[in-house]
From TrEMBL:
This is Calreticulin. One of its GO terms (molecular function) is unfolded protein binding. It holds the Pfam family Calreticulin. Belongs to the calreticulin family. It comes from Blepharisma stoltei. Residues 202-271, 346-384 are annotated as: Disordered. Residues 1-15 form the signal peptide. It comes from the Eukaryota. An alpha-D-glucoside binds at Y105, K107, Y124, D131, E312. GO terms for biological process: ERAD pathway; protein folding. GO terms for cellular component: endoplasmic reticulum lumen; endoplasmic reticulum membrane. Residues 202-213 have a biased composition (Basic and acidic residues). The lineage of its organism: Eukaryota, Sar, Alveolata, Ciliophora, Postciliodesmatophora.
Length: 384
């Protein structure tokens, strides 16, 4: 199929591609930088393939340019809903520098949002992608339902190396989801299971009480165990047998007594040994009952009317590159787009990075070369 423009609505059988972007040379005609920060803390993106790549042109993406800056940019597409059909969000991200704190996620925005003020306070329907800050390394898949954002309760891993990785989120019309990295499944399940969007189907019965005869002590004192005779006759402290009265001790000082020290024979307070309790029933928990506040939502997958893609970030470490974004209702279309835009990177980028690293290493002066140059300079100064 011939692609006329990245934002063209393309129908193929029952599949629709609502948005796709490869950031070719005219990308700025489709994207709008916001002005949500007016205090000089917001920076702009640039088109770049980074320091290493497989294809200098195909691997061009949108790169953050300055450290310690906010970023906000967006692109609109014709409004649609995913009522009764899948929603597939897929893109690639390369964290070319070692990120100590920065997001690599994108947002799917509702129809009618304001591109000029798009920023951290702009409502969104989906927020998806990796986020790294210190030891926190995870992938967000935040879903908005009735104006409230819900973070995935199951932790999703993310990639932390310097290579390009492809992130894919699929929400199916049966209210299940699938999350993939580099076309490999990372997680799947139901929206109810891994998001607290709806109240729980069952709750603990608030009226239930622990029975009076419930035994929750796992052990009890052995009734057959008896305290040994003479146990209580052993004192805790005894006079120090190695102590002696000082030579200068006088009768006016009173009767001399040796200082007390811990008795090595003292065993402490006697307690009977513990044995398993034959009446033990385990910890008591209230029985569950149907939650009267729970109402099934067959259309939980349909989050609203989608109208655009946005990238809104805070970057301590810049240099992250976004590329190859697709929003579609077809898993097959997303796979085909991946084969077109990402397969060559998955196969060739490790070698490209290795070659770059080796070239950079070759540029560094060798220790011997430095010493030779120093000796040469020293000899020159002697001649003077």
């Amino acid at each position: 199929m011939k692609w006329i423009a990245p934002l063209l609505l393309v129908a193929f059988a029952s599949a629709t591609v609502f948005f796709q972007e490869e950031f070719n040379a005219d990308w700025e005609s489709r994207w709008v930088n916001s002005n949500w920060k007016s205090d000089g803390t917001q920076a702009k993106f640039r088109r770049s393939a980074g320091n290493w790549y497989v294809d200098a042109e195909k691997d061009q993406g949108l790169q953050t340019t300055e450290d310690y800056r906010f970023y906000g940019i967006s692109s609109k597409f014709p409004a649609f809903t995913n009522q009764g059909k899948p929603l597939v969000v897929q893109y690639t991200v390369k964290m070319e520098r070692n990120v100590d704190c920065g997001g690599g996620y994108i947002k799917i925005l509702p129809d009618g949002f304001d591109q000029s003020t798009f920023g951290g306070e702009t409502p969104y329907l989906v927020m998806f992608g990796p986020d790294i800050c210190g030891s926190e390394k995870k992938t967000h898949l935040i879903l908005s339902y009735k104006g409230k954002n819900f973070l995935n309760t199951k932790r999703f891993r993310c990639e932390t190396d310097n290579l390009t990785h492809q992130y894919t989120a699929i929400i199916f019309p049966d209210n299940t989801y699938q999350f993939l990295i580099d076309n490999q499944e990372v997680s799947k399940g139901t929206l109810e299971e891994h998001w607290d969007i709806l109240p729980k189907k069952e709750i603990k019965d608030p009226s239930a009480k622990k029975p009076d005869d419930w035994v929750d002590e796992p052990t009890l004192p052995d009734p057959e165990d008896k305290k040994p005779e003479g146990w209580d006759d052993i004192p805790e402290l005894i006079p120090d047998p190695n102590a002696s009265k000082p030579e200068d001790w006088e009768e006016k000082d009173g009767e001399w007594k040796a200082p007390m020290i811990p008795n090595p024979e003292y065993k402490g307070e006697w307690r009977p040994k513990m044995i398993p309790n034959p009446s033990y029933k385990g910890p008591w928990t209230a029985p569950t009952i149907p939650n009267p506040e729970y109402v099934a939502e067959p259309n939980l997958h349909a989050l609203g009317t989608y109208g655009g893609v946005g990238i809104e970030l805070w970057q301590v470490t810049s240099g992250i590159i976004f590329d190859n974004i697709i929003v579609t209702d077809s898993v097959e279309e997303a796979k085909a787009f991946s084969e077109k835009t990402f397969a060559h990177r998955l196969a060739g980028e490790p070698d490209a990075k290795k070659a770059y690293d080796e070239a950079e290493e070759a540029k560094r002066p060798k220790p011997q070369e430095t010493e030779d140059e120093h000796d040469h300079d020293h000899e020159g100064r002697e001649d003077l």
